């Protein structure tokens, strides 16, 4: 049995802004199910604490004042959660990283440096919990200082640092380095300095015993200039310590055979429920009901990373194709406004819901024929995995986790029964349109179509498989501890 401290800034269902929360709320459970002792450390945000009461706690002195650590459990599990509370740091409502004006909180460096310092105290068993981990698993920039700060500790745990999205690096002005009272030797391009800024991510990239990201392909991509975000040199330098592990999905929450959020459950032995869900989805959005026209769906942020600009540019040609388009998501206002414009032009062909709706997301996955993910970069991605599980054929760009989880429908893959989607390579409207036409052609060839659906629905995207790979990574970190 391994003792693992899992340090994160969010975990579902306690708080979620993105995929990090899904991993933080699932991987510890999967590791626990395999017999390991995992404890989650995260901030005690005001909205989170408001839903909890009468929690036991411990108080410790830290730079900047008194810190209280509340003890609870991840809802519905036996996984302990330690919530770090400090007046003025995490006791504000709303988004954990952004103020109401949409800009980062001006004290984010201080807030998450505090989380990291507490992480070190817990890791070294100086809080009074009577528990010391063998592994500290840090996630994204908010916990990036932990591996750096642990460097000075005698008999420290091994450290693992997971990059969920390298585009977010925790960059702050130089004066904050002094304000945080970090050791002066850290102000070096070989340490936490990045183009005269303090970079939290470098704490993990430079000092962690093992670095990983959320797909094998993304681990390769970030060593190159296109996806490296300025860190490609450092990542190449540490490539012997860098690997990729695909995120799992919650196979209980995303199971078409038992999903309580869809009107008709179904499985491989009886797919009639899928067609009924398609009709329910069409009715929900007042689209014409029928199975002759393919429903093409998108769920996610309407931002350039996700390729929404390509979809908008392709819209005139898409509207010439025999399809209905369903989009659920939110993001940049300019893209939202343009999508609204297109919906008013084609109210019987385009369905749009701005924002996020969990139940509707499930209905879209269950009722669509095709799912579009033309991402410019995608560290892992989850919707392409949900889609395959629900017999919805993904159309994806060949990047990151999309390339790792979708088998292209080539003649060879179709022949051996592994084809599970349509994959295109270029970031262009032409490539997106060609892939969509090919997918529509396959949709009309029912024996081939059923073969593709079957291949996707039979894939194992469980967390159990990914958790075992993390255990292998922890073993390597323990061997490599320097």
Tell me what you see in this structure.
By secondary structure, this protein is α/β, with parallel strands linked by helices. The chain has helices at residues 19-33, 46-50, 108-123, 145-150, 174-179, 200-207, 216-221, 225-228, 232-237, 272-284, 308-318, 333-345, 358-367, 383-389, 400-405, 411-416, 429-443, 446-457, 463-480, and strands spanning 3-7, 37-43, 57-62, 65-73, 80-85, 135-139, 158-163, 171-173, 193-194, 197-199, 210-213, 242-244, 294-299, 323-329, 350-354, 370-373, 393-397, 422-424. β6 (135-139), α4 (145-150) and β7 (158-163) form a beta-alpha-beta unit. α10 packs across α13 (358-367) and α11 (308-318) packs parallel to α12 (333-345).
Which structural traits does this protein have?
6-stranded parallel sheet; 18% strand; 482 residues; Rossmann fold; 9-stranded mixed sheet; 19 helices; alpha/beta
**Which fold name is given in CATH as the topology of the largest domain?**
Rossmann fold
CATH architecture descriptor of the largest domain: 3-Layer(aba) Sandwich
Identify the overall geometry. globular
Biggest pleated-sheet summary: 9 strands, mixed
Q: Into which percentage range does the β-strand content fall? A: 15-25%
- Give the mean pLDDT: 95
Summarize the amount of helix as a percent range.
25-40%
CATH class bucket of the largest domain: Alpha Beta
Largest sheet, order of strands side by side? 3-4-5-2-1-6-7-11-12
